[in-house]
Amino acid sequence: MPVPASGRWTVAVLGPGGVGGLLAALLSRAGHRVICVAGQETAHVLRRDGLQVRSRHFGDFTAVVEADTELREPADLCVVAVKATALDAAAERVAPERLGDARVLPLLNGIEHPDVLRARYGAQRVVPGVIRVESTRTAPGVIEHGSPFVEIDLAGTGQDLGPLTAMLTDAGARTTVGGDETAVLWAKLAFLAPFALLTTRYGLTIGETRTGRREELVRLVEEAAAVSRACGVPADAAGILARYDSFPAATKSSMQRDAEAGRPLELDAIGGALLRSAERHGVEVPLAGRLVAELAGG
Question: Which residues pair with 11 in a beta bridge?
Answer without folding.
Answer: 34, 77
